[in-house]
Amino acid sequence: MKTYLDCIPCFIRQTLDAVRVATTDPALHELALREILKAAGEVDFSLPPPLMGHRIHHLIRTLTNVPDPYKLLKDQYNTYVLGLYPALKELVEGSPGPIETAARLAIAGNIIDFGATIKVDQSIVDKTIESSLGDKLFGSMAEFQAAVNSAGRILYIGDNAGEIVFDRLLIEQLPTERVTFVVRGGPVINDVTMADAMDTGMTELVKVIDNGSDVQGIILEECSEEFRQSFAKADLVIAKGQGNYETLSGVEKPIFFLLKAKCLVVAGHIGCDLGSMVIGRVEDFKPQELNHHV
Questions:
Q1: 77 and 56 both lie in a single domain
Q2: 19, 66, 182, 216 — which has fewest CB within 10 A?
Q3: Angle at which helices 98-108 and 163-171 pack, to 10 degrees?
Q4: Does pTM surpass 0.85?
Q5: Taking residues 7-25, what's their average pLDDT?
């Protein structure tokens, strides 16, 4: 997916959010903003938005000398959702369609995304969980189930801390011996890393690898050889969240995208309403004509 004009104000907002998480120093807030305003004037609109996001967060880590500005928030949300996990697991196992219930919860977990907005609190997570059980799915659960059943190797690419616990609920409904879970190779926003996988029990459930990159998505040429080989050999890729969609939507591969459409650009690119729960492949989507052309 390319970058659109409407992505530019989001880059600026994300810069301010992130630098304010990293430091209370107003001089550094101003410096980060000025640097990204310059960079915004040089954006290559043919490239996916997470590449600019990578530039933003690398700059902030460098300016503030804080290697993982969102660490406390990530730990907070891992702990919070782990506290919900027993009740959610009981809900899944007691439902008439456990894999659909688990998929709905996994998509609901995608609301924990501090790249889209810093204004996510636990009450919003709770409301999203509740609504997810009855909201319409944009895509086909039956086709997702069929793809899982026929896949010998499943690569599940995670997105955010906290959200990883919701992913665990879904992976427990999959043939776990066929699943490899993927985390980022380094910290960026609240994206999931190996530490999060260990803290939430994912490493005890399935094989976990990192992709060797700290981009908010999957840029294959930036990833490790181990990841690229796993990606090439996978019969099915399950990619969570907007960043993975933005970077993988143009890749020829059997990929099911699971996400909450949290911005108008992504929603338009998919062809769904803002806030939709998405479970589908690119070929299933019907992009709308975006009034965001370069």
A1: no
A2: 66
A3: 160
A4: yes
A5: 94
